Structure formats: C-alpha cells, structure tokens
Amino acid sequence: MLSPARRATECDPHVRGASTPSRAQVDRFIPSRSALDLDVAHYNMSQDGRGTEGEDDSKEIRSPAKEAYKKSLADNFHVERGSDSAKILAFKSKAPAPPSGMENSARGVYTNNSAGVRAKKTCRQIPSAPERILDAPELIDDYYLNLIDWGSSNQVAVALGCTVYMWNADTGAINQLCQTNPADEEDYITSVNWGADGKHIAVGTNSAEVQIWDASQCKKVRTLRGHAARVGAISWNGSQLATGGRDNTIMIHDVRIREHCTSTLRVHQQEVCGLKWSPSGNQLASGGNDNLLHIFDATSIGNRQALHRLDAHQAAVKALAWCPFQSNLLASGGGTADRCIKFWNTNTGAMLNSVDTHSQVCSLQWNTHERELLSSHGYSQNQLCLWKYPTMTKMAELTGHQARVLHMAQSPDGTTVVSAAADETLRFWKCFDNSVEKTKKVRDANDSSVLRRFNFR
C-alpha cells in the first residue's frame, strides 16, 4: 500500500522526480479518406432535411402560418409548389437546357446572367407607302418658295395659289385662313411659317408683304412691309421674325414694336430662298440663288456681317436643317447643278461631309428620335431618301410623287413628315415613328380605301 506522500508525488507531474509519459502515447487521430463515405455525406446534406416515406416523425413540424407564408411567396414569385430546391438567383451562366418534358418553368425565372449581354436592337420597319394623301390643287411649282409648315398646334398650313388653308391633323377639319386680294391677279402666297406658340403664323406674299395672322381666330394681327419684292422665306425666333426676299435682302423684325425692322442684311447677290434659325436661337442660316450659304450670330446680327460665308455649293441653297442633337451642326442641300447634301460646323465654318444625291435637293428634315436625315428630291425619281447619320448610308427610298418634292414639314411629335410636290398632292409618311410596336402593314399606294384621299377644295 502506498503512502499518501508517495501517491501525491506520482500523480503530480510538476513534482520533481515524477515520470513523464512517453511521446508515443500522445497523438491526434488522422482518419483514412478511403474509409469515409463522402458521397453519401454530400447526398445527405443536399437533401436539405427531407426524409423518405415513413420518416414523417423526424421531419420538422410546420405550422399553418408558415405554410401560408410559403404559399404566398410561391404565388408572388411564380414558383411551382413542391419545387423548394429551385434557385431564384444565380450568379453564373445558365445551365444546359433539360431534356424535353423535364423542364421546370420556375427554375429559369431569374437564372440568366445578364451581365455583359447586350439587348437585341429591334429593327425599325419603315413604311414604303404614305399613310394619307391630300389633294392640293394650284400648289405653285416654284423651287424658291416655302409653301407648307406644320405647327405645334398640330395643324398643317399650306399655300395654294392665293389662299392659305389649315388642315387639323387631330380632327381632319380644313379651314381657310386667308387670301390675297382677288382683284390682283399677280399676287399670291409665297411662304408660310408657324410661330412656336402654334397660334400665330407669318404669311409672305408676292406683293412683298409679310402678314401676321392669329390662326385661332383667322384674324390678321398686323402687316410688315420693307421688302421690294416677293418674300419667299420666313423663320420665327420667339418674337423675332427673319424674312428673305427676291430683293436679295434679309430683314429682322421685332413683331412687338411699331418700328418692326431692327436690321437689314444685304449679303446675297440673288433671291434668298432658304432661311432657318437654330433651335437655340443663337444662329441664323440663310441660303440664296447665288449658291451661297451664310451663318449669322444672333448677338452680332445688328452689325450686318455674317459670321461665315460658305461657297461650296454649285447651285441654289434652299434646303436647310439644323441638327436637333448637336447645336452647331447644319445640313444644307443644293439645287440641280449641285445635288449635294453638305454638313457644316457652324462655329468654325468647316465643312464636315458632302454627299452626292444625284438629284436636286429640295428639302431636309432631321429625325428627332434617331440620328437620321430625310431629304426630298426632284428629277428624275422625285423621291424621299432616308439617310443614317453620320455614315450617310441610305436606309430607304419613299416613292409615289409624280413630280419634284418641293417642300417637307414635320409633325410636333416628330413621327410623321408631310411632303408637298409639284404633282399637287400632299403625302404623309410615318417614317420617323419610334414606337415599340412594329406591326405596321404594307399599304398599297393605289388603294383608295387605305390611302384616304381628301381635297382642300
């Protein structure tokens, strides 16, 4: 029997003389990997606690409230009941499609990885036939006049001989706005232009007058005089009105004051046939039968000097269009001897591009929804051409007019363009439509039941 002192000595390892266990008796357990059923363990973990039949006692007891909550989630996320293991979010590429008949409609709801995937661009269908045709008898066949405009009130004003008519695009109603003196057979309408308010319209005449009319009341507000010959070009800029005449002059009017003429510009050697203020009102572009294009700065227009004098065209410059998405970009079109559309940086006066259209350029209109330009032409095809900017790839040709397409105007919503031609018809083209639905039907230009034809008189 051991004494207490001896037992204490043997049990306490810190006591001098106590025996130390051998190193072979202390070690960690390293299992054999081949003896482990890792596949079975992984399978059991992936079952997410689901047992087999007969194991209902080991399953988690679920309350009615929890079942109702899960059902509500499934209904809101369009998940089929019973597909609890379906993934809602996935952060990798979509798995290969399952065999036919094995699809689970809920599994693919949010499994597409959209990162880096570009949305497929829908191809816009451009109708090849006009949406509507209106007869326009006595529309004067004169390249240097500007006889149609579409106002913000959604009314089209068109000059037919000595009379201005208004066609309401909402109702289809036609009203007569004004008429020159019937006793003067030499007088006729030479230009029309709506003000930004859609209420007032300026009318130029062959007798060198510019008349301001209140379209809502068909009442003449005032008459502006100063030109010595017909006024073929008009452009509004707020309360300012620029007019260009056959007397080779451009007049700037302030319609609010009695002495309305604030500046007279004599920079052209022949008739002024094109006149357009920029959308910002900072610059004015003028084109003439002398093949010249001038750019004026609004802040220094009183000095009667042009900011730029551009002489690259080889024929009359009537077609002018300011770009809606770049303030200093101007497109201009030349007559029969030129046939080119040219693009200008109006800040520097540099020509950016020139495209030969192989036909007289009568009018230009920018698409306000896309980077596109529409041009109207004369002999030989009398067509409208839609161009992609800046590549100037021709996207479509719109045909149907039987004579040169002298004028164009654009609807307030920027989807429709009306063209007026020497064949005495107006044609409405929905060529700028940017709607998502692309279910337009191809219309037959000769089908009078589809192309509703009206007469102004």
Automatic annotation (TrEMBL):
Which SUPFAM superfamilies does the UniProt entry name for this protein?
A: WD40 repeat-like
SMART domains cross-referenced by the UniProt entry: WD40
Domain CDC20/Fizzy WD40: start-end pairs: 134-429
Q: Which terms under GO biological process does the entry name? A: anaphase-promoting complex-dependent catabolic process; cell division; positive regulation of anaphase-promoting complex-dependent catabolic process
Where are WD repeat segments found? 182-223, 224-256, 265-300, 398-430
Q: Which GO terms describe its cellular component?
A: anaphase-promoting complex
Put simply, this protein is called WD40-repeat-containing domain protein
What job does this protein perform? Component of the anaphase promoting complex/cyclosome (APC/C), a cell cycle-regulated E3 ubiquitin-protein ligase complex that controls progression through mitosis and the G1 phase of the cell cycle.
Q: Which PANTHER family match?
A: CELL DIVISION CYCLE 20 CDC20 FIZZY -RELATED (PTHR19918), FI02843P (PTHR19918:SF8)
Would the keyword Amino-acid biosynthesis be found if you checked this record's keyword annotation? no
Q: Please provide the record's keywords in A-Z order.
A: Cell cycle, Cell division, Mitosis, Repeat, WD repeat
Q: For the region Disordered, give the residue spans.
A: 1-23
Name the protein family.
Belongs to the WD repeat CDC20/Fizzy family.
Q: Under the GO molecular function aspect, what terms does this record hold? A: anaphase-promoting complex binding; ubiquitin ligase activator activity
Q: Which InterPro entries match?
A: Cdc20/Fizzy (IPR033010), WD40/YVTN_repeat-like_dom_sf (IPR015943), WD40_CDC20-Fz (IPR056150), WD40_repeat_dom_sf (IPR036322), WD40_rpt (IPR001680)
